Amino acid sequence: MTKSDDSTLKTLAEITAARAKPAFETIPEPELPLAATYLEKATPQAQPELKKAKAKRKTVVDEDVTFDEPNITRRISKSGHVTYMVQIRRRVEGKQYSLSNTFGHLRNAKNWRNKRLLEIEVDGFPIQVISETTIADVIRDRLARGKQVGRSAKQNLEFIRESEFGDTKVSTLTQKQLYDFADLLLAGERSPQTVAGYMVHLAATLKWAKRRGALIPIAVVIDAMEVLWEDELLARSEERDRRPELEELDKILKAIVANRRQKIPVATIMVFAIFSARRLGEICRLRWEDLNISESRVLVREMKHPRKKKKNNVWCDLPPEALKIILSMPRTSEFIFPYNPRSVGTAFRRHRDKVGVIDLRFHDLRHEAISRLSEMGMLQSFVAKTSGHKGESCLERYTHVEKSGDKYVDWPWLAFILNTNGS
């Protein structure tokens, strides 16, 4: 064998030996108590400690994160429970006030905070102050100053002022108290229409006082009124279609004329109402200086209006019969009919009841006058010039046409009134 062959064999032997030798030495692993470890984790004694550790780790993480939310403070209890307290502070008239609430979720806390801030921006800070001012005090103040209220409103407010409900503090007024008072009025055999008058005047008076600085939860009043209308404790006035028969008028007028103790010319005022379409209060406010004879018109001062309570002065046409009655009246005063409307109304009702005429009001004579003009074929626009209505829609509820023509043609009572006043 040559030397080259020996060299080759030697090289192959080294390669074979190198392949047989491991590339690294195996390091023996230490024995670990794996089974014991897993058993320990599974035991109940180890679970609370594990939970505490997790809660502790969570608390540490939360504390590391900076919490910066306006008006909200985050609180973390020892057990790791997180709550969010909202607190809004404002200084009003030198005094510090605050609103606060606590929530378990940040989202709820933000929603409450944002809602309160918006309400404060719109309505001001809600100061919870209990005032000693009562409903009676507010009503007394309303009747003593400001625009004069009507007779019905004054009577309603005076009744409320003298009632037990008048002692209620306005600053702590609740919806239930208003509801219970309306229910009490109904229990006194008042109709929903009558109760509506009391409550509407009361609500208007409370709003009047609120605008002048009184501490009144006016939103409570508004909500209470809405509920009262919805529950039908209150109702609108019913439209009347009552018109007097000629026989009924004849009975009442005869009773008035026969009563020698009756000093007020109630018969004259009744007949004038039928031909002029004027309300009783308007009749007693007519002035000689406001009469335009050439144009057969008269200025009706402070005419009733759903919104304009004062200075609603309207020129109204006078039918020929109405103008004749005015010209037959003696001029003893600045007023054409210088009488108290309450006294006239009382006398009318007394004689009406005496002769047994049922359910006829003095105001029904206005309905009669407007209906008469329509039955005579007069256009609505011309009827409105006599009645004083601004629109035909308002006029419709007063018109109760029964048949065409004028049932007062040659009515003897007109001639009687003119002759009596002229003598």
Give the secondary structure arrangement, pairings included.
Elements: H1 3-20, H2 34-42, H3 46-64, E1 72-76, E2 82-92, E3 95-103, H4 106-123, H5 135-144, H6 151-162, H7 175-187, H8 192-211, H9 218-230, H10 246-258, H11 266-276, H12 280-283, E4 291-292, E5 297-300, E6 314-317, H13 320-328, H14 341-354, H15 364-375, H16 380-387, H17 392-396, H18 412-422
Antiparallel strand pairs: 1-2, 2-3, 4-5, 5-6
Helix pairs in contact: 5-6, 5-8, 6-8, 7-9, 8-9, 10-14, 11-13, 11-15, 13-18, 15-16
The strand line-up of the biggest sheet is: 1-2-3
Shape: elongated
Span of the ends, CA to CA: 181 Å
- Number of extended strands: 6
Please estimate the helix content. Answer: 40-55%
Secondary structure tally, helices: 18
Output the structural class. Answer: mainly alpha
Radius of gyration: 45 Å
Strand content: 5-15%
Mean pLDDT: 82
Account of the protein in words:
This protein is mainly α. Helices cover 52% and strands 8% of the residues. It has helices at 3-20, 34-42, 46-64, 106-123, 135-144, 151-162, 175-187, 192-211, 218-230, 246-258, 266-276, 280-283, 320-328, 341-354, 364-375, 380-387, 392-396, 412-422, and strands at residues 72-76, 82-92, 95-103, 291-292, 297-300, 314-317. The strands form 2 sheets. Strands 1-2-3 form a 3-stranded antiparallel beta sheet, covered by helices on one side. A 3-stranded antiparallel beta sheet has the order 4-5-6. β2 (82-92) and β3 form a beta hairpin. α5 (135-144) crosses α8 and α10 (246-258) crosses α14 (341-354). The longest helix has 20 residues, at 192-211.
